[in-house]
Amino acid sequence: MKKQTKAIHTAYRLPDAYGALSMPVYHTAAYEFKNADEMADAFCGRTDMPDYSRVTNPTVTYFENKVKELTGATNVIALSSGMAAISNTLLAVAGAGKNIVSSRHVFGNTYSLIAGTLLRFGVKPKLCDLTDIEKVESMVDENTCCIYLEIITNPQMEVADLRALSRVAKAHHIPLIADTTMIPFTEFSAKELGVDIEVVSSTKYLSGGATSIGGLVIDYGTLEGFGQRMKTEMLLNLGAYMTPHVAYMQTLGLETLNARYRLQASNALELARKLCTLPAIRRVNYVGLEDNPYHELAVSQFGKTGGAMITIDLESREACFSFINRLKLIRRATNLFDNKSLAIHPASTIFGNFTDRQRKSMDVLDTTVRLSVGLEDVDDLFEDIKNSL
Ligand code: PLP
């Protein structure tokens, strides 16, 4: 079956007692066993019958299996948010005395996790320019536990060479972990680019119109023991497994992902081209534009689509605020890849609690507005932007 067919028709592991055509939502905390032997087998992983919904649930398993079918992963684990996917993954690979080679160009909470929370537990951040492969090579040492990056950074829109980073990671026997939230995993193969573990905020494209918060860890089985540790240690001890109702909504989202994403990405490209004609905008940053410095690399890694996030730079912070305040159609909200188009000023919101110096070091500018392009008609979006400028 081709990907789109798998997204719709992946089979349930066991037939539903009533022949339900939609995967039922198993709203249960626990499961009953026929006898103590069966119970012991389930708890010790000798069978794959569910035992407790902090670790496994048939509705969530179905969602995970669909993602497994679509990516060819060895293990897929669904969690309660993108941040849960990131934190559980890093806690599984790191430990006191280890370090993480990453960048200052990452999502704000990921930055605080790596540079703050994990540091308190003795994991050192080693942050550098991940587009400079020699620099990355020089940062990795015997205590490095992984190289961590975002495939298109939010909001700087930087793209690093995944194949080159993978060569560095492989030479040092450490995993390359990539946050692939910006381009759906149905559009490209992270595995073929040498990524060992993908983390995704499924809140974004997958949830099907911002219905719910969720995250995915997609493990390609190259790091020995990782999948097992996620299931037997992280899920049990940290307790951030996805809930069945969210899995149900995100399974439906996955069925329409391709159709929604293709329209959002083509809307974003058309809008980005139109925005380049407006003199009040100093810069339009979108990897889908042919003159973007990362365009060729992005196409070679992720295919023809450039995602649905655009940033624009205006004259000043005041100009950004006044623009955002005037918008009538585009909503003032955080989040990405809702069906509705959204606008936010990252420096004063997502990065608002960082110091000016930190924001500067992260290249989060006061003059940037981030747009998430939705499923509306592009002419209406362009009119709203033009009028608000
Ligand atoms: N990764 C990226 C690239 C993001 O943009 C976000 C959220 O905006 C996250 C991770 C965190 O995801 P969540 O909000 O689902 O925890």
Give a summary of the structure in a few sentences.
The chain has helices at 3-9, 36-43, 58-71, 82-93, 108-120, 133-139, 162-171, 226-238, 244-275, 295-302, 317-326, 356-361, 378-388, and strands at residues 75-79, 99-102, 124-127, 144-150, 176-179, 197-201, 215-219, 283-285, 309-313, 331-332, 342-344, 368-372. It is an alpha/beta fold and 389 residues long.
CATH class of the largest domain: Alpha Beta
What sequence of helices (H) and strands (E) makes up the elements? HHHEHEHEHEHEEEHHEHEHEEHEH
Number of domains: 2
Query: Can you tell me the CATH architecture of the largest domain?
Result: 3-Layer(aba) Sandwich
> Average pLDDT across residues?
97
The Cα radius of gyration reads 21 Å
Class computed from helices, strands and strand pairing:
alpha/beta
Task: Catalogue the unreliable spans.
Answer: none
> What name does CATH use for the topology of the largest domain?
Aspartate Aminotransferase, domain 2
Q: Shape from CA axes?
A: globular
Number of strand elements: 12
Associated small molecules: pyridoxal-5'-phosphate
What's the name of the CATH homologous superfamily of the largest domain?
Answer: Type I PLP-dependent aspartate aminotransferase-like (Major domain)
* First-last Cα distance: 48 Å
Strands ordered across the widest β-sheet: 1-7-6-5-4-2-3
Major beta-sheet overview: 7 strands, mixed
Give the helix tally.
13
